[in-house]
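Bumping my old thread because nobody answered last time. Still need a sequence for this structure:
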């Protein structure tokens, strides 16, 4: 389903991409896609048209079918979450690869249908869990992998902010907490094993707008997530505590700070018996800060070109939807729920 594309200065064929949804997130995708090396943004789709002028001269179509008819290699799906399934299935049925915004879908069943559709056709498909491309979290994950923190005890995240009036199709668990679920599993390399959650609905909408989650990962790491749309402040905080200290990542500023445990020597007899932790040095790392959305797009483009690309697979996106469903189930039943064991990950097609 690809029209002939010119070859760029690098000698590689220029990929033809489409963008579906020109809202708050689609505008950012449009900006990045217009300037992405090796990619031509062929057209966009939004039934409401281009209200913000984000397409900047690129054709704005009304239906996904019109976009597919132009011949594209892949599409970025940035329409509301409730429409990811129908749009994704149409792309897969027509042999078009897709980068689908997070969360993968509004329900576990819908996410499973998307996994099946893209895998059955051997198409490259990914989920836009953008936090994985945040420099602070990338550095944190690399440091955990090399054992800088020693044994990992706990992951705490807070994602609080004001109400986004445009999001009406899902609640804060699927819309925002999926960031925390994905990043926690990814930085630790662990699965969620069980969790308990409580939600609050204050905005008058059918969905929750505040959640508190306490959980356990498969290696016993304790996790907690506070996520809401009811705070007059914006914070994106992730702290990982282990036997050597604590890493704190701020994904708004892309800063990563390490608080080391202090080595305490004291002649004070009463304190000698205390085997807890003392404050040591604090280091804020100087890390290169590339725009996460640009890195996400570069990785996905590379994967579509058949290069080894570190993308978030649909199965990983499905897993995050499963955990978010367990959060809602726990809140509804007011019990601790076990998270079913993970479906094994499939290698992405070349
Ligand atoms: N990765 C992130 O950090 C991040 C941030 C914000 C939103 N998102 C995700 O992006 C998606 C869109 O969110 P948003 O905040 O941009 O929403 P939005 O409401 O601002 O924009 C959605 C746009 O999609 C259009 N649309 C509706 N139905 C469509 C269809 N069938 N085909 C094409 N376009 C359609 C709407 O007219 C609107 O312009 C959601 O899945 C959301 O979870 C991700």
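Sorry it took so long. Here it is:
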């Amino acid at each position: 389903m690809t029209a002939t594309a010119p070859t760029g200065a690098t000698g590689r064929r220029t990929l033809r991409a489409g963008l579906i949804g020109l809202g708050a997130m689609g505008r950012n995708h449009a900006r990045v896609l217009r300037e992405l090396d090796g990619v031509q943004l062929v057209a966009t789709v939004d039934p409401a048209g281009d209200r913000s002028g984000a397409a900047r001269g690129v054709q704005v179509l009304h239906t996904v079918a019109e976009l597919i008819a132009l011949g594209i290699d892949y599409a970025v799906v940035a329409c509301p979450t409730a429409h990811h399934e129908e749009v994704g299935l149409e792309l897969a049925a027509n042999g078009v690869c897709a980068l689908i915004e997070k969360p993968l879908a509004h329900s576990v069943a819908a996410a499973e249908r998307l996994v099946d559709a893209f895998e059955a056709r051997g198409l490259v498909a990914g989920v836009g869990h953008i936090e994985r491309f945040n420099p602070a979290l990338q550095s944190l994950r690399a440091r955990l992998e090399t054992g800088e923190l020693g044994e990992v005890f706990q992951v705490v995240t807070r994602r609080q902010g004001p109400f986004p009036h445009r999001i009406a199709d899902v609640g804060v668990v699927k819309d925002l907490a999926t960031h925390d679920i994905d990043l926690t599993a990814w930085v630790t390399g662990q699965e969620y094993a069980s969790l308990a959650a409580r939600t609050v609905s204050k905005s008058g909408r059918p969905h929750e707008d505040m959640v508190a989650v306490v959980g356990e990962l498969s290696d016993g790491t304790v996790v907690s997530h506070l996520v809401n749309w009811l705070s007059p402040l914006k914070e994106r905080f992730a702290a990982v505590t282990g036997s050597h200290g604590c890493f704190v990542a701020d994904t708004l500023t892309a800063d990563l700070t390490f608080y080391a445990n202090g080595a305490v020597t004291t002649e004070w007899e009463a304190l000698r018996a205390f085997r807890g932790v003392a404050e040591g040095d604090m280091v804020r790392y100087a890390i290169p800060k590339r725009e996460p959305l640009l890195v996400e797009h570069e990785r996905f483009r590379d994967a579509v070109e058949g290069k080894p690309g570190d993308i978030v697979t649909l199965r990983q996106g499905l897993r995050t939807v499963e955990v978010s469903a367990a959060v809602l189930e726990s809140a509804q039943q007011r019990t601790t729920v076990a998270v079913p064991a993970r479906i094994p990950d499939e290698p992405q097609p070349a």
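The first helix runs from residue 24 to 35. Let me know if any region looks off to you.
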